[in-house]
Amino acid sequence: MNSSEILIIDDEAQIRKLLEITLQSNDFVVREATTAKEGLLAAANHPPDLIILDLGLPDESGHEVLKKLREWYSKPILILSVQNSEEDIVKALDNGANDYLTKPFRTGELLARMRSSLRKGDSEKDSPALDFDDLQIDFTTRTVRKNNELVKLTATEYSLLILFAKNEGRVLTYKYVLREGWGPGQVNESQYLRVYIAQLRKKIEDNPNRPLHLLTESGVGYRFVGKK
Predict the structure, then answer these.
(1) Tens of pLDDT along 143-178?
(2) What is the DSSP string of the chain?
(3) What structural domains and CATH numbers belong to the chain?
(4) pLDDT confidence band for 119 (50 / 70 / 90)
């Protein structure tokens, strides 16, 4: 049975009811808040395993709530909002959201995104190795294997792969990847990043033109999918 506790911060009664039914039927424990103030208080008093946050709250912007949560809360936050502009999505992800879904949403996709985010809290992330079916990464020896064959990566390619693998399932914006990989002075060099992504795909994907591991989120960034 899934014992993960989910906090929903959303002022729409119908959405909360749908989420409650969906999550409880999948054995999640559900708590609810209808305002930013209630949500922040609920998260602080009893930190959940994952937060589902709406951006259009009545008393404060969800973007501000996200930033306040990220001052101390390190577990997954999934944005669920009618706000679907590229600007809103990028802003939320850059402010620390693990994922972003727009309303209306498919419950199957929501559950898949939640499970992917929740996996980041387990010990696998801090283990000396990661195994993604056909792709294995050994942090101790700094080696990567595809179908048990050693893959030769440059230092930059390896660093990028580690960044993506340790954030499996999470959308990383172009700005975030550039900042983490090359520093704050390079956050606008998206073309520079695309060259390295293309090189990395040639080495870890069966078909670089139809990647299954390193996916593009158009206009936003990239998502690494470990299990195909």
Answers:
(1) 999 998 999 999 889 999 999 988 888 889 988 888
(2) ----EEEEE-S-HHHHHHHHHHHHHTT-EEEEESSHHHHHHHHHHS--SEEEE-SB-SSSBHHHHHHHHTTT--S-EEEEES---HHHHHHHHHTT-SEEEESS--HHHHHHHHHHHHHTTSGGGGSSEEEETTEEEETTTTEEEETTEEE---HHHHHHHHHHHTTTT-EEEHHHHHHHHH-GGGTT-HHHHHHHHHHHHHHH-SSTTS-SSEEEETTTEEEE----
(3) 5-119 (3.40.50.2300), 123-224 (1.10.10.10)
(4) confident
Query: For the stretch 120-141, what's the b/e string if a residue is b when 16 or more beta carbons lie within 10 angstroms of its beta carbon?
Result: beeeeeeeeebebebbbbeeee
